Amino acid sequence: MSQNDHSHGSPAAASGGHDDHDIRAHIRGYMIVFAALIIGTFMTVWVSYIHFESVAVTVAIALLIASVKGFLVAAYFMHLISEKKMIYSIMAATVFFFIGLMGLTVWSMNAGSIIHIK
Amino acid sequence: MDIPFTVEPRKDTGLFNAKVGIWLFLASEVMLFGALFSTYILLRVGAAPGDWPHGLLNIPLGMLNTIVLIVSSITVVMAWASLKMNNFARFRKFQAVTLMCSIAFLCIKSYEYHDKFTHYEVQLNDGKVLDGHMTESDAEKFEIHGHYVDKAEAAKVTHAWQEREVKEDHYTVKRSDVKYMESYGPWHNTYTAIYFTLTGLHALHVIGGALVIFMLWGPLAGMWKTDPERYTNRIEISGLFWHFVDLVWIFLFPVLYLL
User: Whole-prediction pTM value?
Assistant: First the structure.
C-alpha cells in the first residue's frame, strides 16, 4: 500500500470489520479459484474434442464442468459460502423455482405427459 | 432524510438493504435466463435430425471471451478487496482492467456477430446447397468459402467435432444460379434465433454492468472520500452483478459453442 492510498477515508471505516489479514487470506482463495476457473475452461474445450459416441455423455461432462465453475464463482467470488440466512432464503426460493422450471421442461418432452407439446 | 441501512445492517436481515436488493434482482435474473435455457432445450430436442447446427461457432474466440470474463471477475473481486484494505489507487487499477475486459468481450462478440452475418446458406437452382462465408461479391457473382451440404450426411451429425472435420474450399457462384440465399442472422433457424437472443441479452448485461462499474470508478468515485463504507458497499453490489454475468457465460459457452 502506498502512502497516498491512506489519504482517502479511514481504514477502520472502510474495512467493515475485516482486517487486512482476513482480506489477504480471502485473496489467496480468490487466486486459487481463478486458476481453477481457467483450468476448467481449458478442460471444457479439451473434452469437447474427445470423440464420445454418446451425446448424453458429451452433454453431461460439459455441464458438470460448467456447474463446478459456476459453483466456484457463486461460492467464493460472490461469497455465497459465508452469507447470511436472508440470502440463503432468497437463493433457496430461486433454486426451488429454477428446478421446477427445468422439471416442467423435461416433463413436457415426455410424449406421455399431459403438458407434452406435439 | 438519509436513506436508512446503506451501511449499517438491519437487525432483522443482518444485511445492508442494497445487498438484499441485488440478491432479489439476481434471483429474477436466474429465472429470466432459466426460461431462455428452457427454450433452448425444447428447441434443440425438438429439432429434426440435421436441422440443429453443430460446430457453427468459433471455439477459440468463445474460449478467449470466457477467459476475458474470468479475468474481469478476479479484477472485480480484487478491486473490492483493495477498498477493504483502504487502497483506493489499487482499486482504480483493478477496475480499469475490468472495464478493458468488458470492452474486449464486446469487441470479440461483435466480431462473432459480424461473422454470422457474412455466413450464408445458398440454395442453387440445381438443388445443391452451399454453406460458407462470403469473401467477395459483385453484381454478377460472389465467392463463398465453405462446402456443399449433403442433407443426408448432415442429418447424421450429432457432435460438434464431426462438423469440424468437414473440408472447406472456395466456390464462385453466379447470382443467376441462386434460387435463395440467407445469412446466419437470428432469422435463419431456431439455433441462430436462440443464439442471438441468449448472447444478445447477455451482452446487454455486460454493457449495463460495465456502465455501472465505470460510473462508480470515475464520476461517482468522490464518495470514497466522504463515505468510504457506503462506497465499498456499492462496489460489492456492482461486483455481485458482474459475477452473475460471468456465471451465465460459463454455461452459455459450452451449451452454444461446444455441444
Answer: 0.89
